Amino acid sequence: MIVSEVTPPSVEPVLLADLKTHLNIDSSFIDDDSYIETLQVVARRHAEVVTRRKLISQTWQYFLQEWPDEDFITIPFGSLQSITHCKYTGTDDVVNTDFDENDEWTADTDSDPGRLVLKYGKSFPSIALASQNAIELQFVCGYGDAGSDVPDEILMAIKLMVSELYENREMSIKAVSMTKLDTFSNLLASYRLWW
Q1: What are the phi and psi torsion angles at 113 (to 5°)?
Q2: C-beta pairs of 96-103 under 8 Å, 24+ apart in sequence
Q3: Are 143 and 151 contacting, i.e. CB atoms less than 8 angstroms apart?
Q4: 154 three-class SS
């Protein structure tokens, strides 16, 4: 699977002010803000890796080398909002944009993960494809545009990860830390995408 980010999330799912409240840091103390924001990004990315999802709306490209045998293409990351386009390149290196949603396929945003599904009686184009990254799908995924769209368990896992990383800045192996890591995993487990 080859994926490439087009547009990153516009916000983090947990706001800096919420993290400072969770960490019991007075809002007037700003010396650690930059550090906390870095931990916030690290925790969000870790949650996305563990769940195999993207949390806040973002745009990605997904490249395939050949059309599937089924009448659908499964889109990575879950919480599919829309498919912007599906293009394919033939052996003549011409990019074809005529395989469009209006006539050929529909975006299945009800399934998780979402899919590009052929319309009744339609088939994938039969021309010979270019030798590399011949099929390009661009799509938008994520729970929504704001942290309030993200499930509470994921938000809590991010807060706990930030808290642990903020309080323990050195590498150490402690029973308490391992228990906290289990808590992170347990909070995220039910949202893990098994595709």
Answers
A1: -75, 160
A2: 96/125, 96/127, 99/124, 99/125
A3: yes
A4: helix
pTM for the model stands at 0.88
Say how far apart CA 111 and CA 137 lie, in whole Å: 17
Q: 84: which 2 tokens?
A: 């912007």
Between the alpha carbon of residue 66 and those of residues 41, 93, 104, the distances in Å are 35, 15, 17
pLDDT digits (tens, 9 = 90+) for 55-72: 999 999 999 999 999 999
Tokens 């228990």 -> residue: 179
Is residue 158 within 8 A of residue 142, CB to CB? The reply is no
What are the structural domains, with CATH classification, of the chain?
Answer: 10-55+146-189 (1.10.3230), 58-141 (no CATH)
> Is residue 110 a contact partner of residue 53, using CB atoms and an 8 Å limit?
no
Q: Report the chain's C-alpha Rg in angstroms.
A: 20
- Number of residues in the chain: 195
